[in-house]
Amino acid sequence: MGHAASKLPSDPSAYATPFVPESSNIVPDEVTSKWRSYDYVIVGGGTAGCVLASRLSEDRGTTVLLLEAGESNDGKFFSRIPLAFERMLGSAHDWCYRTTPQQSLHERTVEYPRGKLLGGTSSINAMIYQQCDPEDFDAWETRGATGWDSNTMAKYFQKMRKDGPKVATDLDLAPVTKAFLEAAEGMGIPRKQDFNTSAGAAGAGAFYGAVDEKHDRSSPATTYLRPEVRQRPNLTIGVSVHTERVLFTLGAGGSLRAAGVQISTSRDGPKFAVGASREVIVCGGVFGSPQVLLLSGTGPSEQLEKLKIPVVRNMPAVGRGLLDHFCPGTIVFRAREGWTWDNVTQSQAHAAWALLRWLMFGTGPMSALCGQAGIFIRSDDKSLPYGPDLPVKDTFSGPKAPDLEYLIFPMGIIDYGHGFPSRGNYGVSVGVINLKPSSTGTVELRTNSVYDAPLINANYLADKSDLNVLIKAVRFLLHLVRTPPLSDALDLRNYESKPENEDYYWIGDADPDKVSDEDIEAFIRKYGQSATHPTSSARMGSDPETSVVDPRLCVHGIQGLRVVDASVFPDQVSGHPCVPVIAVAERAADLIKGVVA
Ligand SMILES: Cc1cc2nc3c(=O)[nH]c(=O)nc-3n(C[C@H](O)[C@H](O)[C@H](O)COP(=O)(O)OP(=O)(O)OC[C@H]3O[C@@H](n4cnc5c(N)ncnc54)[C@H](O)[C@@H]3O)c2cc1C
């Protein structure tokens, strides 16, 4: 039964059974029958996990246990402030993953922030609210994800508007952001009032934010798990607890069934087990979910055998097919005084005043998004100045969906937020994002412990097409920033090639008609980063060789085990993935409840 008395317990003895593990992941029925048990055990209280915990516990006769490795989101001040989300990055509430050294990036490792608290990455993200392009979901359906087409997803986008994150539609914009949108319009890119309609993502406009009426972050943790939901007697939420592995029982004819999970609060601390009479639902995110599956013996057998993990089922696709939105870092353009919001990063007095305004009135820069606006275009648009015709693969979701995004930040952001222009220097920063990459990466185990981060090889730019599309995209941006009225806001040089004393305003200072592809390529390789939207490491599909879960999100060949989070995306989305993750979890809840077939 769920534990009504103590909410958000961090001691597993409040809701689980002490357990002495053996090496096998398969446990006899006489052992599992002694465990404390819930109808559903959800592994990972992140974006998707919060949605499922809320929906599945709506029926008071159903017991649900949600297990989150991080702490509660309550009282995390910087998580609440829209403009200050980056203060959460690198904190105790970030898993602080990094990629393995990337061959294409001079062996650099790349940061991979992921939320480690209730709400998961939706508690540390930039709060951009975007449903992405309807063609994304029709492409999923075509790829074998039956039942996930755009019409179906539209119903869940609608449903989440009621109980999910609140949506702010009129957030403040800096003058330079407005100038960007006008310049884009001047180049023939249609202006968008709302990215969340059936018209799709292509166009230029200000983003809506997952921000509530008080201008606080609004996330699955603050909405689906609002206080009255947390008080439900049939819902137990365990925090600061790692799920180490799923445990299985064998049924008639050797059929495998997920029986529960093994959990702990530290590497060497005591272990506990907890049973799931109906299902274990893994919502650990794009790195956490494949890690838990691999530790449970469900993954590529040769990888598991090397780490002496007993193979429960050989599943070659676990941790394969990772897709990420890659960008050449943030490109900083020298701006003139008065157009940007640099004073928030450059002056403590200004930052303090902005914070006070946010606290007292919910207004001012702190109440606005950091990534304020987006320009979504297609790399095959012949009307736009992309420069030399470099070969690029057709990875579009459909005939209208974009494959490039320009994300506008109204201040100088150097080296991915590790620095800002000094006082008196101003900047506007742009993330140039390849939305539909061809290169795929892997998530593998480093060790056989959940306390060691997995090996994440994003494999950036392995396919030349991904490099070419970004070279074209950067050249287009260099043209765009020289278009009025944006050009009035900026103070750009026009260098033909990289200057001797390269500074953080390179490559923005490059002449778009003269800079070489090689100079742009060198910039991309030197500064390239993740746009932090990885997906597809435990893909949905019908073939167990190339996918992990079927279209009902059930793990192939195992009863009572599902995966629900960004890892199941069959392909990348042409935009920001958080809202699609929530909609996927909404539909998963209906699948589990049997409301839809
Ligand atoms: C810096 C940043 C900014 C972003 N900005 C945006 C944005 O503005 N808009 C947008 O749409 N998207 C944005 N994203 C992406 C988006 O937030 C994610 O794609 C989405 O939240 C992922 O949801 P998820 O459920 O797949 O995983 P998560 O939300 O990461 O949930 C996984 C949860 O599982 C827990 N967990 C993992 N392993 C275990 C284990 N073994 N035991 C117990 N618990 C475990 C984790 O702690 C976490 O809480 C951003 C991402 C980052 C990092």
From TrEMBL:
<feature type="binding site">
    <location>
        <position position="370"/>
    </location>
    <ligand>
        <name>substrate</name>
    </ligand>
</feature>
<dbReference type="InterPro" id="IPR036188">
    <property type="entry name" value="FAD/NAD-bd_sf"/>
</dbReference>
<keyword id="KW-0274">FAD</keyword>
<feature type="domain" description="Glucose-methanol-choline oxidoreductase N-terminal">
    <location>
        <begin position="38"/>
        <end position="326"/>
    </location>
</feature>
<comment type="similarity">
    <text>Belongs to the GMC oxidoreductase family.</text>
</comment>
<feature type="binding site">
    <location>
        <position position="121"/>
    </location>
    <ligand>
        <name>FAD</name>
    </ligand>
</feature>
<dbReference type="Pfam" id="PF00732">
    <property type="entry name" value="GMC_oxred_N"/>
</dbReference>
<feature type="domain" description="Glucose-methanol-choline oxidoreductase C-terminal">
    <location>
        <begin position="437"/>
        <end position="585"/>
    </location>
</feature>
<keyword id="KW-0285">Flavoprotein</keyword>
<dbReference type="GO" id="GO:0016614">
    <property type="term" value="F:oxidoreductase activity, acting on CH-OH group of donors"/>
</dbReference>
<dbReference type="InterPro" id="IPR000172">
    <property type="entry name" value="GMC_OxRdtase_N"/>
</dbReference>
<dbReference type="InterPro" id="IPR012132">
    <property type="entry name" value="GMC_OxRdtase"/>
</dbReference>
<dbReference type="InterPro" id="IPR007867">
    <property type="entry name" value="GMC_OxRtase_C"/>
</dbReference>
<feature type="active site" description="Proton donor">
    <location>
        <position position="533"/>
    </location>
</feature>
<protein>
    <submittedName>
        <fullName>GMC oxidoreductase</fullName>
    </submittedName>
</protein>
<feature type="active site" description="Proton acceptor">
    <location>
        <position position="576"/>
    </location>
</feature>
<dbReference type="GO" id="GO:0050660">
    <property type="term" value="F:flavin adenine dinucleotide binding"/>
</dbReference>
<dbReference type="Pfam" id="PF05199">
    <property type="entry name" value="GMC_oxred_C"/>
</dbReference>
